[in-house]
Protein 1
Amino acid sequence: MINIVLFGKPGAGKGTQAEFLKGKYNLTHISTGDVFRYNLKNDTELGKLARTYMDAGDLVPDELTIKMLQDEVEKHHDTKGFLFDGFPRTIAQAGALDAFLSTKNWEVTATIALEADDEILIQRLLERGKTSGRVDDQDEDKIRNRYQEYNEKTAPLMEYYQKQNKFYPVNGIGSIVEITERLSKVIETL
Ligand code: ADP
């Protein structure tokens, strides 16, 4: 069992890289952003609860997010490992993930961070917004709010995982193939 947390700011390329890594290492990919968007699209109860936060670029409350993540993990019990993308995003979520995995005798194996400069990423998101249809990608104020959320609530996770010797930063600037190779080098040492 290997469980990888793919870490990085909005637009860092987590989703793009997860698409390659899940096939290469036979991992179950869970993107909390994708699951929320699926629920939004289908107008489920969860979608209705998450919509206002997501559209504003705020984080969805922990309780709701943690419950959703646990449900997703339970659906894939027979997997060789998980690739968590967009989760955890707060210290409370990281603590809940550790506690939940330990009930199954599993743990986070490594947190791999895709690093890139804010201004480059904001431009990437605005580009993505032209075609993705994502409300939160189309407005610079909302994007800046996501960065503020990241800096306040998500960035402290770096120290959380560093303390456990589980934090692996990777340069997130380069071609998609180059970055997949950088991530693969880390995964193969685990
Ligand atoms: P990005 O990393 O580009 O902001 P995501 O697709 O990962 O995009 O997430 C989109 C939105 O979904 C977030 O801005 C947030 O509102 C919500 N979301 C996703 N994951 C979480 C999480 N772990 N905790 C709280 N909210 C989340």
Protein 2
Amino acid sequence: MRFDIVTLFPELVTAVGESGVTGRAVQQGRLVLETWNPRDWGAGFHQAVDDRPYGGGPGMVMQYGPLASALEAARADATAPLHVIALTPQGRPIRQAMLRELVRKPRVALVCGRYEGIDERFIEAQVDEEWSLGDYVLSGGELGAMVVIDACARLLPGVLGHADSAGQDSFSEGLLDCPHYTRPEVAAGRAVPSVLLGGDHGAIRRWRRREALGRTWERRPDLLAREELGVEDLALLDEYRVERRKGGPHTESDD
Ligand code: SAM
């Protein structure tokens, strides 16, 4: 999968391809990152890319021309059509399902705004979708682009090994992930739930499913409301609730 990132700060975005899972994906050639700096098409000695807002008011607005030229260069370099996403707080909040769809596209352009934002005509004429990280305002879209790239890289075939497969991550099945433990068996006076030590894989699978259901019920009831739970899941959730009512954090109990 290839990302073409339109940004005034290419060095910020390319850093995501230098380490960890995303670094590995780049090395394997499964992820390609290309940047396009609107400054290269900026006007005048200072290669300006922004100007004052029509109607007055604070800040500057990114101009249509340099952004359009940068995107045009990316399109010209494309062997497949570009799907163009602008990162903006006014876009659709990013969800795992959107990323799962996105990785099916071979070429995606991510447009990063700065200043007060981007001239609306660029959004209207050149952008397919607007995506948001959440209900808060950042200084630029680069962090959003990095989030999209990282989350997509995890979903590309062959990037994660079996051991850290994305299939069990939060949201992959509509639920939050279950809690995880590693050595030592006791830390901060808390023991690892005994079921995880017993080697009964059926019981472990059941416990993990119950914890995922319970956590989602407690922390993200909005996610659970979207799921159609089967009889077995409903029974597990009931079990979790009963244990909770008995008191104490579930993970400390001696299952
Ligand atoms: N005036 C804009 C508004 O209130 O909607 C905010 C502009 S913000 C200071 C500058 C740039 O940061 C935006 O154009 C966008 O690219 C990026 N940005 C800020 N918050 C974001 C968010 N929550 N999600 C994605 N991008 C964001």
